[in-house]
Amino acid sequence: MARTLFITGTDTGVGKTVFTALLAEFLRRRGDRVAALKPICSGGRGDARVLRAALDGTLSLDEVNPWHFRAPIAPVLAAEREKKAVSMEPVLAHIRAVQKRFDWVLVEGAGGLLSPLGTDFDSRDLMSALRAVPVIVAQNKLGVVNQILLTLEALPRDLRHGARVVLMAPPCRDPATASNFELLGRLGVRQISRLPRMGGKFSPYEIWRKPGVRRALAAFANLPG
Q1: Which pLDDT belongs to residue 216?
Q2: Could you tell me if 1 and 100 are in contact, meaning their C-beta atoms sit under 8 angstroms apart?
Q3: Among residues 16, 38, 100, 210, which one is catalytic?
Q4: Which of 106, 111, 100, 101 lies closest to 21 in space, CA to CA?
Q5: How many independent structural domains does the chain possess?
Q6: CA nearest 164: which of 129, 208, 127?
Q7: pTM of the entire structure?
């Protein structure tokens, strides 16, 4: 069975897709069979297209992103506007079918950990059912320590110990950007990686080789099976 990471965030727009695409590119280029999925999205399929590009066509867009809705609001509400509904069982079935074909499956949620994805389920529910390694992506700025600690506290207890945190460099640094990493460590958060600012448009092929990026990604690539 594939090693499965579930990428969530402290909020929307914090860099989940950037991180997922970079890690997929890294794993693929070192020779692993990797799938990157954004099972559910709303407000456009731009993130899913970025993930598919990082896979170099291994999966179709509909395999990367089977459920998509037009309105840029929570997926459960966007689906309701289109008189549709998504339940957790078919989402799990899709992910598990993909797991059988790959060494790694990277699953990107929508919004934060508890943002509702469909009828009576959220990213935490999917993560728990999949027994996936939680990856919390956050903008490295003032206030993020509280957001990360709250997200860790909300994780299923049996998955919390293995959770990883990724601090993404913000568009504009503030006084907390340089100190958050150390403070989180002092508070007992051990598995933390940092990635530099990627910009609004980026090419995983070009970016993953930046100083520090490969080292950060290699820490994930060496997770035990």
Answers
A1: 86
A2: yes
A3: 38
A4: 106
A5: 1
A6: 127
A7: 0.94
